[in-house]
What we know:
The complex is a heterotrimer of chains A (about 120), B (about 150) and C (about 325). By secondary structure, chain A is mainly alpha-helical. Chain A contains five helices and no strands. Chain A is globular, with a radius of gyration of 17 Å. The relative contact order of chain A is 0.11. Chain B has about 150 residues and is mostly helical. Chain B has a domain of about 100 residues. Chain B is about 80% helix and about 0% strand. Chain B starts with 5 loop residues before the first helix and ends with a helix. The mean pLDDT of chain B is about 90. In chain C, the strands form three sheets. In chain C, strands 1, 2, 3, 4, 5, 7, 8, 9, 10, 12 and 15 form an eleven-stranded mixed beta sheet that branches. In chain C, helix 2 crosses helix 3. The model of chain C has no long low-confidence stretch (mean pLDDT about 95). The chains are: A mainly alpha (about 120), B mainly alpha (about 150), C alpha/beta (about 325). Chains A and C meet through loops of A and loops of C.
Amino acid sequence: xxxxxxxxxxVGGIICTIGQVFINTTKMTSARILVGFLLLGxxxxxxxxxKYVKEFGMAGATVPIxxxxxxxxxxxxKGALENGILGAxxxxxxxxxxxxxxxxxxxxIVGLISSSKTK
Amino acid sequence: xxxxxxxxxxxxxxxxxxxKHLLTMFRAFWVGGLICCIGQGITDLYKHFxxxxxxxxIATLTTITLICITVILxxxxxxxxxxxxAGAGSIVPIxxxxxxxxxxxxxxxREGVVLGLCxxxxxxxxxxIVFGISSSIAVGIIVLIFKxxxx
Amino acid sequence: MKNHTIFFKNxxxxxxxxxxxxxxxxxxxxxxxxxxNIEDDLLGxxxxxxxxxxLHISTIKYLLNKTHRKPHEIDLCLSGDLLDxxxxxxxxxxxxxxxxxxxxxxxxxFGEALIAxxxxxxxxxxxxxxxSTSSHFSTAERQYRYPLELGNQRTPLAQWTxxxxxxxxxxxxSGKVIIDxxxxxxxxxxxxxxxxxxxxxxxxxxxxTLLAHLEGTGRSPDYYDLILTGDLGEAGHxxxxxxxxxxxxxxxxxxCDCGILLFNRMAQDVGQGGSGAACSSTVFNGxxxxxxxxxxLNKVLLIPTGALVSKTSSLQxxxxxxxxxxxxxxxx
Lengths: 119, 151, 332
């Protein structure tokens, strides 16, 4: 149990540290960092490496945006194999539909209620 | 046309203060690790209470929970303070994505709900959606072409 | 005109100044020199843009009250800010029955306004002119950078846009401080593209203007009790010292930067220091003007610096042009 969490902490921490190195050295903005790690997840899933990372890191691999990318790719692969061309197009979005739907909905609600505060 | 002054650009590179690598990396490491552990904790809780659900649905529920927590923290003006401390530690996790959707929504509400909030909600996170969906379709097509390799 | 430097034939006096600043500026090292400060920088308005306008209106009203002048006694108001189409200044001047000309030179707007006003007053067609600039952290942040609630890290070179308004009333009749000469800067661009590193983008422009000023007036840096650049920040200020040494001019302890004076850099977490159109105008109208009145300073050279960056141009890969204007003040 404790060892599990240690692995999660380690993998998640390392992924974020790599992101920080990119921020420090290339002055990347957060949108670019997010896109970069997302694509990394897509590629790792497609070539079949991500499942080993996930096996070891669990949430440490799936909570970073790479996990989101891996879900997209996993859905697309599954869709393409099961439903052909239509599955190849819809599979990715279907797999992450929950996350995207919620992020839009709750951001909309919170946006209506809250206002930005001066720092 | 104005030619770049190479000497000056070199001088600026040499003389201007740099990011403190070790400090920022350490902060990103522990906050990023902690957010992932919270994700794992939520997963374990759901596994305990909804043991009949398949693993994929639990993963989706975890993601949704993390997104909700982040957006609410953003609404209270807390998440940007975490971000200022942790840098990539709170950008790279899915929570960073949720924050980058919620923050422009909150910011642009003052220009109206439709043309402000809704029109600007993806100004920061839009590229993530565009790249995510496009790359997933590309992967799907690759799979269709090289079916044998994926079965 | 020698080296872009104008010596005014008339004596251009400062009649009085007014400053209102935000809470963070009030806590800074020169906080007690500002006339007024606000607790909440939203000022009960619906948006920070409206708050900035309200702040600007209050400052000009306060300046008129302080000097017991009526709007019809003011021949011209020269104002600017950092918003698109300088909308803050436009909405401010909607409230006053005073002729208005809007100016934009980014954070160097205050210098531009002082020089333009002095030239107008020098012609004898004008007798009293107000120069004012405003900026607001929250409006600048959303216009030039990111939403306020976005959790990203400020780079070590970032600066903190000052919240506040500084206004100066100039006349050609009487006062305790005069503007004796000024140097108009030209746009200098050495090809830097990092929009977070304004100090380094503006330092070459500041050097160009300072060199032209020293040559045009035949003065040395020691002639002034205080040389004050606008908002180069700590790192940009050190860079300018280095750049001046390259040209054989040594800047001593009489050189400082408004951005450094405005905030306590370590305690207030403001990166390299303050910036924004209000940075030089509040520090000058608050701190420097009071020091000039009390006689602690006699000759001051103010060099507001501006990074003429736009979000579109920097996304299109353009570098950041800088500008700086120098204005020389003397106690009489």
